[in-house]
Amino acid sequence: MTSMTRASLVVFIATVTFMSWPPAVDACNCRVDCVMGTWGEWSACSCLGKRYRERVITTQAACGGTACGALTEWDNTCVAVCPPPPSPPPPPLQPLPPPPAELPSPPAELPPPPAEFPPPPVEPSPPPIPPSKKSMPSQSSGDVSHSSWAPVGAALATSLSLLAALFPG
């Protein structure tokens, strides 16, 4: 057998083999509809009153089956509390007007106080201390009630009563 005959024989056998095989089975002889998963939870409501939810495809449509629907569903009826829009910026500052050429003079005399606040009563001053009693009490005497300090104590008591009248409470 020559090489040409051998090659012809291989081609002939291959042709007969491929021609005798049954036709290929059509993969689309069975219709497959799309199958989708369940919807997920709704998203938070946006300030525009919109929310959405999603789902996934579990089986793709094939061989003329029903196509898949939307993967996202929108709802425009939700109500959200949204922050107010930002306020516009304040207007630019304007320069102050110039001061008057001459400022007014202060009043020459203050007005009298209102009548509802009369001046506090003035108590008479204690009598002057005679020169003989102005000396300090002796240290040997322990009793100071009859000493020369008694008028000072009376003046102090008078001053305290005046302060109490001026500043009650």
From TrEMBL:
PROSITE patterns: TSP1
Keyword Signal assigned: yes
Region of interest (Disordered), ranges: 82-148
Signal peptide: 1-27
Biased composition (Polar residues): 135-148
Entries under SUPFAM superfamilies matching the protein: TSP-1 type 1 repeat (SSF82895)
UniProt entry keywords in alphabetical sequence: Signal
TM ranges: none
Residue ranges, compositional bias (Pro residues): 82-131
Cross-referenced InterPro entries: TSP1_rpt (IPR000884), TSP1_rpt_sf (IPR036383)
Protein name according to UniProt: Uncharacterized protein
